[in-house]
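User: Hi! I'm working on a homework problem where we have to compare a predicted structure to a textbook description. Could you give me the structure for the chain below?
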Amino acid sequence: MSSPVDVSDVDAFRRDGWLIVRGALENEHFEAVDAAVTRLERSAIGGGPGLHHFEQTDAGAALARSEDFVYDDAVLGDLILGGIVVNILGALFGEPAVLFKEKVNYKHPGGGGFAPHQDATAYRFVDHHISCMVPIDPSTVASGCLYVAPGYEAGQLPTDNRGRITVEATAQLAWRPALVEPGDLLFFDSYTPHYSDTNTTGRSRRAAYLTYNAASVGDHRDSYYADKRSEFATEGDDFEGDRVRISISDDFLGKPVPGKRQSVGSRE
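Assistant: Happy to help. Predicted structure tokens:
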């Protein structure tokens, strides 16, 4: 498969820390992915395999995120493990890529956003990753799109005790909204500063986030999920009842569901 990105795209990614590839997924392919995400959501609500997280919205409990599902659906497996996503990642890494983790954020109406952060602070085992955002619904300012900023070349920025970029450092960054449509792909480095706001629309803003590392540093996906499940079992799945714990870092701003486990599902 020929790559849809060229040298100028790779240079732009290395300069900015992110790259949008417009219309990367053909309509028929995207429709299959959309249907697969719908199946995943239904499975998660029904207690299916994987790791799933819930949050409280004004309309009640809502599914916030699903993880660890790559082998549960052939369509999602093909998207994540081969084809155009892995092809582009090979160009950005300069070598083959291997999957580190996969997730879908559903961001239902009223779904919480994420405080300014860098993914690298929450990703163990490997010190550099690239993620691909696959928008399933239009990602707009109103629906809580991702905001990105230059600064990844500086490495880890100053953080507070929650793993969030400090208020002072956040104020110095030149933020811009990453407005993407179904069929587009957004690639961003694990040191790229980013955040998102609450979804204020009446429809979901679903997006898959697929994270990879260079193949030369090994396959750490199983270790990542074993480590995450162990930490959640020890530390709990909320931060003293204040926020839903869906990441190692405390960057998600969603509220816990009263009287309910926030994280469910297993591989046992």
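For your comparison, note the following. The chain is about 25% helix and 25% strand. The mean pLDDT is 94. Good luck with the assignment!
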